[in-house]
Amino acid sequence: MSDLPALLVAVPIVAGVIALVTGQWRARAAWAVALVAAAAQVGMAGLLAATVFRDGTVSYEVGSFAAPYGIELVVDGLSASVAVLVAVVALGVLVYSRVAGPHTPAFHTEYLLLVAGLSGMSITGDVFNLYVFLEITGLTAYALVASGDSGRAAVGALKYLIVGTVGASLYLLGIGYAFVATGTLNMADMSTKLAEVGYADPLVLTAFGLIVTGLAVKSAIFPLHTWQPEAYAGAPDSVSAFVAALVSTVSAYAIARLIVSVFTVDFLREVPMAREFVVALAGVSVVAGSALAVMQSEVKRMLAYSSVSQFGLVVAAFAMATESAFVGGAIHLLGHAVMKGGLFLAAGAIAAATGARRVSEYRGLAGRRPVLAGSFAVLALSMVGVPPAVGFVGKWYIALAAVEAEAWPIAVVILASTLLTLAYFARVIERMYFAAAPAAAAAEGAAEPTPDAAVADGAGGPLSGRRSPRSDGGDAEGSAALTPGIVALVALVAVLSVALGLVATEYAQVLEQTLPPLLSP
Amino acid sequence: MFDLLVTRYNYVAVALLLGIGVYMMIENANLVKKVIGMNVFQTGIFLFFITSAYVEGGAPPLVHHGGEAGEYVSPLPHVLILTAIVVGVSLTAVALALIVRIYAEYGTLDENVLREVRADE
Prior knowledge:
The complex is a heterodimer.
Chain A: H1 4-25, H2 27-55, E1 58-61, E2 72-75, H3 77-100, H4 105-123, H5 127-145, H6 151-182, H7 187-197, H8 202-218, H9 227-234, H10 237-270, H11 272-295, H12 299-320, H13 323-354, H14 365-368, H15 370-384, H16 390-404, H17 408-434, H18 439-447, H19 449-460, H20 484-514, H21 516-519
Antiparallel strand pairs in A: 1-2
Helix pairs in contact in A: 1-2, 1-4, 2-3, 2-4, 3-4, 3-10, 3-13, 3-20, 4-5, 5-6, 5-10, 6-7, 6-8, 6-9, 7-10, 8-10, 9-10, 9-12, 10-11, 10-12, 10-13, 11-12, 11-17, 12-13, 12-16, 12-17, 13-15, 13-16, 13-20, 15-17, 15-20, 16-17, 16-20, 19-20
Chain B: H1 2-7, H2 9-27, H3 31-53, H4 76-106, H5 111-119
């Protein structure tokens, strides 16, 4: 089992090819192949994470070439967590896509390749290898966004492609500078060589600026976020859930990895300007993202701008780079992926059930679709940071760190971010619960109350037992179908977002044990 | 200053290519030209890597049977850039495929016209 890190990348790629081939023979077989691969991915990532949390960092030399020359895969506590997150979210969204579509074999192939790219990004220990995985992730994400039927999806994807490529190219240029300064590409090796070169060296500073800016484009930090709303809003529902939950998340993880593993905390201490640059970028992102989110009338666009704001928070935490800030950043990163993925799934399910895609169309939704509305509200409140939920734990650690470090502007922005998040989610919750349903929708609800109510109420009870929608029959061809399985899945994510909050403190303790080597001064 | 320009002309070329690429991406309304701008931008980066590997009077990195000492050009950036070129080609292909779809959907390649057409959506 020592080949586990390599298999984590290889299995989805091979399965992607198998899915494409079997898909030619029977379109539905591709989904089954993808499901098996995604389940295997969860197993492998889980096993790897268990190993890492028991025995410490796992390192794997690809092709048995020794580390500074060959490519190294390094899995520590943080990367193992991200790999598990990628695997679990991939499986969940795949189950959702069984009904919600797209159903083409090409979709499943791209999906698996995206999983491979994201897993690779999370476990690689080589900066150029990270660029390659970044581009694999990018290419498949562009293709997935474009898999929507409308021309809007194609325009969104092209914009995403052009801006994303500039981001990845800036990152590549940054690597170039770092390579010229140090002559190595291995992260661990580079971090010692950078210290030898001297942190004030213009080459090192330029490399830092270019790398952070490039990855900030990919994780949609404020002035560089312009590709995101169009891409998320134009993509099919399952794609936007997947991309929103993972692509930016893993890019933000890459920022964290490069800041603490390559440039190290010493760099931030010695070059306060670099830290201030990142923190200021992140702080502006929190405020501006929230403000833009409030102005949106379309729910998926609002959720996209919400990501801009939340990633600002995560990046600010990573840039502070104290222990509790880092733990908080990691928890908020993982928790945000679950919550945002769940919100996109809920929005997709609500659109499939009622056709509502705008905030104004959510009026009185709670009366018609109690479980979906409830799940959306729980996920939204979790994102705001209402105590037992995971959104609270992350923000708590980050705010604590800001106060400890006496970084008052950051502390203010973090505390304000709770209010700002509430500002855009409260609108939706108010429409759903306190506004009367429009007459037409109420009539529609009254005309056929029985099946709807049965679906909604039936799913509210035994949540955990009804995960798989395969029991609903596989003949639901239309993408607008809503099955009890989907409702159950959305409700499960909502429950998960609260449950994760309860275990997050234990996770924080585990993480604190694996992280000190990264953060020790 | 002039000396610096003459001896470091490849860096000047890198900076020019990067600038021209970004300018084309921002300023051209035609979508295909935006993609060309993207390629120019990437080419600037490729040139930067290759320049960084260049050694004055260095031999190709092929060690002969005797293993004789001498100055060799670093092979690593060339290998990296081969990978990056492949990535660039794939990106261009995907971008052009998307442009074909946009043209089929809206009948235009002009960004401004596209914005007007899409305002009604």
